[in-house]
Amino acid sequence: MKETTLFDLEDAVKPQQKINVGGGFQLELYPRKKGDSTGKIHLDCQVVIYRNGNLERTVDFNDHAAKRIAVVELVEHGAIQNHLVDALGLSRQSIHNWRETKKHFGLEGLINNYRVPESKNRAKHRKEKASRLGNGNKARKLEDLRRKARNEEDSKQLSLDFSCCPGGTAETISPDNQLFSEEHDWKPTRYAGVFPYLISLISKWNWLVLIQGYFGDSYRIFLVFLLMAGRNIRSMEQLKHVRVKEAGALLGLGCLPAREKLWQWFQQAAAKERSQAVLLAYFSHQIRTGLISVWLWFTDGHLLPYSGHKKVHKAYNTQRRMPFPGQTNLVSCDRTGRIVDFSIEEGKGDLRQRIFELAKKWSTELQSPPIMVFDREGSGLAFFSELVKKNVCFATWEKHANHKRLSALPVDKFSNSFSLNGKEYRFFEEEKICEYCPDEAEAKAGLTAHKFSLRRIVLWNLSSDRRASGLAWDGNPDSSRGLTARECAEAILSRWGASENTFKHLNSRHPLHYHPGFELSDSEKQLISNPEIKKSQGRISGFEKRLSKLYREVTKTEDARKKDGSVRSNSKKQRLSEQISNLEEQLSFEKEIKKQLPEQVDVSTLVNYGSFKRIDNEGKYLFDFVTTSVWNSRKQLVDWLCPEFTNENELVDLFYAISNCQGWIKTGPTNVVVRLEPLQQRPAGDQGAARLRDLPVRDPGRLRRRARDRFYDRRLRGR
Q1: Strand 708-710 and strand 672-676: pairing?
Q2: What value does the mean pLDDT of the chain take?
Q3: Is residue 509 assigned to a domain?
Q4: What percent of the chain has pLDDT over 90?
Q5: Based on CB atoms within 10 Å of each CB, which residue in 13, 57, 316, 711 is the most buried?
Q6: Residue 3's pLDDT is what?
Q7: Is residue 214 part of a domain?
Q8: Ramachandran angles phi, psi of 587, nearest 5°
Q9: How many structural domains is the chain composed of?
Q10: 393, 474 in Cβ contact below 8 A?
Q11: 217-234 per-position pLDDT tens digit
């Protein structure tokens, strides 16, 4: 039986080897004999398309309509456009125009012909199509559409609120301080891996518009902070080890100035006192554009230590388990670890008040506040009662759980199970009835008893054989924010123990503790525990110890009697009894004195006590704004690498390897191009580079730009 073929290959030469074009596609090209004397690939050929080794279809590239449809569909199904350009000898602009033509004009516009059904009149059909598709050159129409899209995007980027600025408008940038104002050919730089941060921040967060609008020429210090956060440079003093020309070329500043000039930039930005306004605009933009999740928010405190010689309030050091001079950074993250808001508070900080402030602050941006998740520090009936009254949903650990009861629960009661972070858990849910009774002071303030019910989720960690319980309240029964028992359990477990990673990564990867510039002033919180109470308690303890000793001694002493049997008046037991009576009177008097002492006093009224100082956090807020931006940008960039790199354990390390790469930068009149050195994980790098190349990145203060980051130079790959 004669073997059949899909098409006639009599006029075709032997095909080349299969060419991989990405997305699992391979191509076999059969060029025509005619006109192939130079050995050059021509478009007049037949192409066999394979996918994952299986024959997909055959396309005759002499048919222009079939060629266009095939190329567009290959790109839509995952083929890499640059690989198609190399394999088929097409231009990148042609493929882009074909894709845009199909997007805006459909297949008929792509074919460039009208298919008229036999049952319709040709003239009438063309008239109908012309009214929908229009007439004229489609390439010029695509240019108009791209120009319109750029204008709309620019208008969106400039729609930020600059009400805090003088006159309610954005500050202007002087011509000498424009970003990437110096044009140059390829220059090597050790810090090329920081450029992806800048691209994602400009495109997704309108970051450059934000800092230039609020700070004018002082925006340059934020780019320096970006370099510090991206390369884990722990202080501005350590910038002396940075190659100033290479770093300046990458950041668009020409050359980094000396340390004195950098401090001048910082002081100019801090003097504007706009940190809270820029943070509010940044966090609001995240929420409005969906860059963060608004379902679960995890709030926790982090110590910012102070090692100076001034007297400041103390925060709690969890690692050392002791008070430590410093401040508390109360940070709220979403389920993925992206930072949604933070606040620096003096001393220990008030987690409970912070929860209420978050719910109130973002009530205008959100239809309903997120479910707040916090640790045992927020546990308490009074706090739970207030959360329920204010309709703030929450989930937390149960602080004073009855561990004997939990251990005695039968195994068959834990009817549900799930796995989280490689650990197996079993759980069940029950109801906890709570009743909060206010004390005398609260009752005088108008508070009444409040009875409410909470959900108790009992967890059993099978790997450690430990049991614990958590509490949750997800609103009224008709609320749309309801959580399942498993979601409550996962929310409680998601940010503590083995699952807590945000602060650990931040502290090891970024200069989290750095506080640029310490300006101290007198604190408004000068109340301390009355030292006289401590002294009085010491005297009371001394009396009680002496009495305890006398009590033991008097019980062991027998009465001394005379010869006639009467008790001697100067016996040892009689003397001990008199001493006990005197000490009891002194103890009673000392306790009365202690009751009359105020619990807290103003430290300024005491002798030999220095007043507390308050740390000015304006500069710290500006630096943490950049650290937060870099952290959230890193989360986004890692997500772009995920589809092409399946090893989740090394995904973050892969990104940090990319961010530490060296490379080259070229600045032209309208674009900035950065090339990074190649890595072994090429598919993941190509995926990230493709996403970055498609981002519209423009400098709002200068000409339109197309800032592009390419993870690999094609010439380095030998292509």
Answers
A1: parallel
A2: 81
A3: no
A4: 39
A5: 711
A6: 41
A7: yes
A8: -65, -45
A9: 4
A10: yes
A11: 999 999 999 999 999 999
